[in-house]
Amino acid sequence: MAEEEEEEVELSDEEKIETVKWFLLNSPPGEIKYVSKDVKSILNDNDLYNEAASEAFPLYNKSHMIFLQMPDRSGDVLITSFNEVEVNAFLDPRSTQVAVVDHVKQVCTEVRPAKDEELPSPYIEEFRCALDAEVLRYVDEAYPKGVCSVYCVNGKDADGPGSDFELVVVISAARLSPQNFCNGSWRSVWNVEVKEDQQMVEVKGKIQVGAHYFEEGNVQLDAKHECKDLTLFQSSEDCALSISSIIRHHETEYLASLEASYLNLSDTIFKDLRRKLPVTRTLFPWHNTLQFSLTRDITKELGIEK
Amino acid sequence: MEAAMGLMRRIPPKHIETGLSALLSLLPHHSSELLSQVDQPLQVLSDMDCGKEFILCEYNRDADSYRSPWSNKYHPPLEDGSLPSLQLRKLEIEANDIFAIYRDQYYEGGISSVYMWEDDNEGFVACFLIKKDGSKTGQGRRGYLQEGAWEAIHVIEVGPEEEGTTNYRLTSTVMLSLTTNNESSGTFSLSGSIRREMNMRVPLAEGHLCNMGRMIEEMEGKMRNSLDQVYFGKTREMVCTLRPPSEVVQMRMPES
After folding, report:
1. Which residues of A touch B148 (CB under 8 A)?
2. For B124-158, how does the pLDDT look when each residue is reduced to its tens digit (9 = 90+)?
3. ipTM of the modeled complex
4. What pLDDT is attached to residue A123?
5. Is the pLDDT of residue A81 over 50?
6. Are A114 and A74 in contact (CB under 8 A)?
7. Domain edge (last residue) among A23, A44, A63
8. What's the domain range around B23?
9. Which residues of A touch B119 (CB under 8 A)?
10. CB-neighbour burial class of residue A292 (10 A; exposed 0-12, middle 13-18, buried 19+)
């Protein structure tokens, strides 16, 4: 009833913007453009739409960790909150460039060389670069269309041993196949915290997998997993090797557990919603429902004669 | 409207309610069209007279009250709420009793309601509803699901009898959502909704209930199967495209 009362009142501009943002932010992987087209025509107010889009697209792009091709063909730049150096500008540490993007169009418009203060110190860069090379090798092997990067998010100016720092490994893979009514994305974020005094490296991972299949229906997968691991602090090359093998190990295990979940689904889990066959293991005896109702003479009632 | 329906095909099915109320607020002039075209999660009320629960939908609503199929009374009470004819009400009572047994055999729990009303073409319309909470805190016997809901809406338009046969036009919607959650594999959540139609002209010899029941049973079986095999299967395929599992094999070899 509350809803019906609300309908009477025209939404304020702020409420409209919030509503449009909600639709945009809830777009499945790779589908914000389609959602924006529909929501724009429903709203029928370009100014309000543009305002909502300018707020929602950056959030969506960063949370989905989309990747955009840089205009000079130096590869893809990931759009994440970890490498956002300025509004609409994202660092690509591998090419030491900063990509300027148009969030709503989802394109990279230009690149500029990164400034010194945007890059980590040579000491940190040695670790970052070594890890980047190992992760890149893993991602090339494991993901047909994966993009990865390694950023320093804490202590990037440390100039030598004895200081703590934190790197973040981002892996993003997307497969957009709207002509087959199917889109999906895999995102993983690995926080690598180096604690030099303990000579330990703590690795924390967050994996998120989404898929949308929408031919004559709307079915979505939303899977999330978090895990943790530890390794010894060693030389940059050895650290990179052990961290990338931790990532590889956990992601492989997770994929196997997803497979197991799917197997379990058909075999057992689905039964808790609806069984394939009745508990009697035969089709329901519609022709003989008399057995269920001893007192009523159903046969007479079944056909309502006009 | 086309854009609105487009949006509903993309919004995560578990957010259908929020999405619908957002659309209603953006498009107040299309509210009746939206409400009739977007299937929303089924709500339940308790019939005070017989202590049984029944499902609410557009088909048992009059003003702000809903008619219980058990007592035939409106909740909250409504003076002159519309009722099916006596004859149709008899069939409705039978249908509710038998459909409850059908529901129990397939769902091992859940709630069902059947509503019938006369239509303008000498026939009638019947709406069969099922709602099942399969979570471990609900009626999930095996206890696998953190959250699990199955909701089915079957609307059958029954035509007038012609030379001993009747035409049945069934439109079915199934909405489901399930979440498993455990330490080793995290949160795994699938949600979806599909709608299908089926037309059949069959002899009336065995009666309407038998004909409609068979149709619904066949349709539910097909829809369950396509959700399981096709729809869930496609999302699984997508996961494997994103990160093919063949690597598992390649990786384990050097270790062993």
Report:
1. 269, 272-273
2. 999 999 999 999 999 998 889 999 999 999 999 99
3. 0.90
4. 94
5. yes
6. no
7. A63
8. 1-36
9. none
10. middle
